[in-house]
Every structure is written in structure tokens, then in C-alpha cells.
Input
Amino acid sequence: MEPIVVGFDGSKPAMGALRWTALEAERQGSEVLVVQSYREPVFGDRPSAKTWPDPGARMRRVQAQLDLATGTVAEDHPTVCFSTQLVGDRPDRALVGFSEGASMVVVGHRGRGRFSSLLLGSVSQWIATRALSTVVVVRPSEKRRW
Output
């Protein structure tokens, strides 16, 4: 069975998407792959050793936050198998790429972008129009605010 892929960026909508995905995976008997996009900050053409004495520190911190969020949700869904993956590509492109081998791709209605008042974020909109699988955009309900 193909996994359910969920995009994660640490935002509340992304956490809501992860929680929704866990429930859906439990219902379907699917595995969950939690994907987060990450790239080292770059100044000019390459990472700056002077500015970033330990360039890997930020990546390790992002991975730790991803693992913590996934582990927190996994505790409530012990029958679901979760895995995580950091990818070095834009989140929209990465998730469309993962959609080829996924039963569905799940994202929050918006992420950490500047325009938090938008009803649908640019990443979720881009994925919804290009993915090769079903796409679910999770929004908070009136009863449940993520």
C-alpha cells in the first residue's frame, strides 16, 4: 500500500495536517511519511562559514523538531508507522515529487509564509494543481483549532 505523505513546516496548520493524516492512516491501515523541506541559508553562491560556524546545527534542529512533532502524534496512534524525511528542495516541488508514490498528499491550508491571512497558501495551491495523487488541504474546523 502506498503511504500517505504529509508536508510539515512546524506551523499550526501543518501540525493539524499531521494529526488529520494520522487519523486517516489509522482508518486506512497506511503508513505516513512526514516531509519537511530544508535548505541551509546561503549568502551569495554558497553557505558562509564565517556567518554559520556550524552549518549543520540548524539542519539538526529542524530534524529534531520534525521528529518531536511526529513522535508526539505517533504516541496517540500506535498502530500507524511514521517516518520522516528532510528534503533539500522547495516544499511545493518536493511534495509533488512524492505524490507519484503516495496514496495522497496532505498539507495544511497555509504555512509559515508572510501572508498568513490567505485562505489557501501558495504551497498548498501549487500542490493541488500539480500532484499525481489525491491532495487533501486540511483546515481547522469550528470545533477544533489546531
